[in-house]
Specification:
Length: 162
Amino acid sequence: MKKLLQQSNRDFSGTYDLYGRLLFKISMIYLGNKDDAEEAMQEAFYRLLHKSPQFYDAEHEKAWLIRTTVNFCKDILRSAWHKRVEKMEDIEKYYDSPQDLDIIREILKLPVKYKTVIHLYYFEDYSVKQIAEILNLKESAVKMRLQRGRQLLKIELEGEEE
């Protein structure tokens, strides 16, 4: 049996420094808005502090934070307020490469269910198996979402070249 990490071993500021940027980027992919993305990221860390879950290792903690962030982003997207307000900000300052920016803009246009798997796979280098575990999906579902997301991106990116 795996040994759980002891609560006293957790360094919150270190965890925030380690995963904050990742969670923010995932939130931006989902929500497309800096304020909402910051709220989602903060909510994930709030839940980490107040629920004090026990983790087997750092990867388990990271997966929990990603899943918590994604779930909160979904809650925001389902909210009545978000459905009535359409916001989109320039995200240039959050990505370093101009090439990444073009692709991120296209990813933001994708349906919600494709955004996270595309981002985790291509920008965060997670395997299909890891993404399936993080998002509580079957590996076949992750593969299908990746395939359909790539097809949609290809259509959009090819359309821009004309």
